[in-house]
Amino acid sequence: IFLSLSKFDPISMPELPEVECSRKTLEDHCLNSKVVRVEAIEQGGGPRDGQFDDKVIDKDLAKDGFESALMGASFGKFGRKGKILWCEMNDSEKSLVMHFGMTGQLSIKDVELIQYRNSKSKREAGEWPPKFTKFVLEFENGTVLAFTDPRRMGRINIVSQITDDPMICTLAPDPLFEIPAAEYWLEKLGKISAPIKSVLLDQRRIVCGVGNWVADEVLYQAGVHPLAACHTLSRSQVEEIRSKLINIVKVACECNSDSSKYPKNWIFHYRWEKKNGSSAKDFEGNDIVYESVGGRTSAVVKSKMKLGERVKDEKKKLNAESESKTQIENGMTKSQKKAKKVATVERKE
To answer: In the annotation, is 14 catalytic?
Structure first.
């Protein structure tokens, strides 16, 4: 359901902006329209064609259970938290829940879509269904929807109460809808020694929905090295990371995840050049190098991105306080200094 055209910069995997784009597109195409056909078998020409994928779709449902639960249903609300999207049924408290994993993707027939970088389920215009399709829903209004997942790391389920679903209720706050206050960040990060990028990628620690490209963009714009230990970050660094995260997800979602509309100074447009055999540089011409953090490749501009500066800031504060004290003492009159000396002697006596 990604409405961006294939000429746009490809995304490596779905993150918050891409899943939010999916949610909004479901609202545009599927809201309150009845499901008239459900096919829960693999389609599109992959090696598992004709099989029910009980690794992606909850095996307890089985093919018949999944199809019968959705046949005749309509969805009155589409929700999202982090990278998880759900569709709330009108005549039931049940919801269809979709975790996109690394390669999960929704497609609508005859609507062009964002192609994930290196995706095995890419399709040409007019080709339907896409390769590695796990299920297809056809709606009364003519919309035909498919979920694909080449690497089979997504998770699909039908739950009775969305608020009780463990995939959702264990997530940290969503940075688009419920970003925590700066003091929350300072308190949490001050107790963590892990690298800041690893913590941003952890869906249950500070925020959810952040993946590799969003984390790299946030840290690049905040000027913080991804290997910086969280507890070494200064207040100003933490506040800058939080501020940049808010802005980046807001802009990406306002662009409907159309990366061609992202600001040209974002490292997003240059971080992939590593793959092309050329020397990657950011918008300003600074060298981009690649380091592994928490098992993920990170695009780093060393001239701009610094390690934690908490100790430096504390030293600056102590020096400023000392200098202020010296200035006050130097500005005292002789009588004030004499009075201070007498008061000190009297306290000792």
So the answer is: yes
Question: What whole-number distance in Å separates Cα of residue 288 and Cα of residue 252?
Answer: 22
SS3 40: coil
Compute, in degrees rounded to 10, the torsion defined by CA atoms 270, 276, 281, 282: 0
| DSSP designation for 292 | E
Catalytic residue, from 18, 20, 42, 83: name it: 83
Catalytic residue status for 175: no
Between CA 235 and CA 180 the distance in angstroms is 15
217: nearest Cα among 118, 139, 143, 304: 304
Residues 275-295: tens digit of each pLDDT: 555 678 999 999 999 999 988
Question: Per this entry, what is the length of the chain?
Answer: 349
Residue 296 CB-density burial (10 A; 0-12 exposed, 13-18 middle, 19+ buried): middle
- Residue 162's CB is within 10 A of a number of other CB atoms, namely 21
pLDDT at residue 323, as a whole number: 60
Q: Which of 33, 42, 4 is nearest to 131 (CA)?
A: 42
* Catalytic residue check, 180: no
Q: Which DSSP category does 332 fall into?
A: -
